[in-house]
Amino acid sequence: MKIDRRQLALPALALGLTLGLMSVVPAFAGADEDAIAKKVEAFRTAQAAGNAEGIAPLCADELSYSHSNAKIDTKASLLDGIAKANYKWSSLEYRDPTIRVVGPTAIVRFNFVGEQEFTDGKKTPQNLHILMNWQKQGSDWKLLSRSATRL
């Protein structure tokens, strides 16, 4: 069997492109993970400050936000609840976060640990497991859904 250079060219090109793309994809995933990590920290900072205006641009219009008591908020009701809250966070940490990018979606998990101080002086500790789903909308990442489970 006689094989000439033309018969080898296409498989060699395909292999080269495949290997080249494999080295580029993780770079994009890392950039997306970094962008999402910044968004998650911006959300935590705004949440700790009770800043609804800081949270608003981070959320998708279609937001579904589930609390550990099974209450479900939309974007509008979440922002209204934050603006009218009768408590402040005396501490709020997102511990051991993990971020997994899957196409235009990111799965974020962490342990939510904090303490709420109510206007009557009562303090309530919080220890939750949080699942956030972020969606890439255009060139920006938006929080699409959030779910909380008491630990």
Automatic annotation (TrEMBL):
Signal peptide region: 1-29
One Pfam family hit: DUF4440
Residue intervals of the DUF4440 domain: 36-143
Keywords in alphabetical order: Signal
InterPro entries in alphabetical order: DUF4440, NTF2-like_dom_sf
Record has Secreted as a keyword: no
SUPFAM superfamilies found in the cross-reference section: NTF2-like (SSF54427)
Name listed for the protein in its UniProt record: DUF4440 domain-containing protein
Record organism: Bradyrhizobium icense
